[in-house]
Design a protein that fits this description.
mainly alpha; 371 residues; 0% strand
Length: 371
């Protein structure tokens, strides 16, 4: 754990060093390069035991390299039994056929893409890139993102689509979200945002939206059964669940805290229509948290929204150093508790680098199987 916290501290060091530059451009470039190296170095060369889904994607890639017919057929061939979205299947097929049969390729490539995408996303919202990166990493947002590779590719498309949503240019926004859904079908939830964006911001409308989410939560299993999803792994696990969904409860409380803090520091701006997009992103996040209380797998949908929820708050707190410092301390305490008592949520500890000299990787031990 000490190693990981030292890694966190490197972002603060980059932030302090950047302050010594005399020009804004030089400080920005230094932060971009340094933060990319930190992110790509940590995530791009992690062992397959680090982050929950890493062995799943490594194992899938590995198994496909052993199938001769797979290598000979068109990269546009769709395999129903793979249970992965078509866009991601094409990507894996292309990598294996034309780039490399080394299964670690998907880990390096995805980490490279996500590191660039995240840093560019941060740089568009603040000049304090390293400090914002520190917030994202200690919040746990990026641990989730680098783990759920398919969904993270979809998140990259959402980053690109967001300016169109902000400008209410719905055609290009919708097109990008549909493309994102080819990597993870859950991206279609983002098509709700243009609808919410049309709703006038007021307590009454907000309560109606949240009550609607509560009604959906109460009937979620019936809804999923009606659309033919009652035989899925996640549905069966949800029906068996008897314990309180601690992760969903914590996520709900955290999203509420971020929303309240955001509205407090931006209450004047929230009266302006330009803030409607940010406001409804928080409300959609709260709705997802409400539904996740009844159906836990829904909490992963907020992976699209957490980066925005944090960066909007970061922008609000940039001039309030004491409040920002308090938030960072709370996030550090939270992630320390997670690492200590709920490490299975991420599998970050113990952290280790991938051993490229070891040709025998027991990834099968970590693959998720239906009971």
């Amino acid at each position: 754990m000490v190693l990981v916290f030292l890694y966190f501290a490197l972002f603060l060091i980059v932030h302090l060093v950047a302050k010594q530059f005399k020009t804004v451009g030089a400080a920005r470039l230094f932060q971009l390069v340094a933060c990319f190296i930190l992110l790509f170095g940590f995530f791009g060369f992690r062992d397959i035991t680090v982050l929950n889904d890493t062995p799943h994607y490594y194992g899938f890639y590995y198994e496909k390299t052993k199938i001769l017919s797979y290598q000979n057929e068109s990269v546009f061939t769709y395999h129903l039994l793979d249970k992965f979205e078509y866009g991601f299947q094409i990507l894996i097929h292309f990598l294996i056929k034309y780039i490399s049969k080394e299964p670690y390729t998907i880990i390096i490539l995805s980490s490279f893409v996500f590191s660039i995408g995240n840093i560019l996303f941060i740089s568009k919202h603040t000049k304090q890139i390293a400090l914002a990166c520190f917030m994202m990493i200690v919040s746990g947002v990026w641990f989730d993102q680098y783990s759920m590779i398919r969904q993270a590719f979809a998140i990259m498309f959402f980053y690109r689509a967001y300016p169109y949503l902000k400008a209410k240019k719905y055609k290009p926004y919708t097109l990008l979200i549909i493309i994102a859904s080819l990597f993870h079908i859950s991206a279609l939830i983002l098509l709700i945002l243009p609808i919410l964006q049309q709703i006038h911001i007021c307590p009454r409308n907000t309560i109606i939206v949240l009550i609607t989410a509560a009604i959906i939560a109460l009937s979620i299993h019936i809804i999923l059964s009606l659309i033919g999803l009652s035989d899925t792994f996640y549905f069966k696990m949800s029906m068996k669940r008897t314990a309180l969904p601690i992760a969903a409860i914590f996520d709900g409380l955290l999203m509420t805290l971020l929303f309240v803090a955001y509205t407090w520091f931006r209450r004047k701006e929230l009266l302006h229509t330009d803030a409607s997009t940010e406001y409804w992103i928080y409300i959609l996040g709260l709705c997802i948290c409400i539904v996740a209380l009844a159906f836990l797998p829904f909490y992963r949908l907020n992976a699209y929204l957490w980066p925005f929820a944090y960066i909007f708050l970061f922008q609000s707190l940039e001039q309030h150093k004491s409040v920002f410092g308090t938030l960072m301390i709370l996030l550090l305490i939270r992630i320390s508790v997670v690492f200590t008592f709920k490490n299975e949520w991420n599998h970050v500890i113990p952290y280790s680098f991938f051993n490229f000299n070891d040709r025998v990787h027991h990834y099968i031990l970590y693959l998720q199987k239906e009971q």
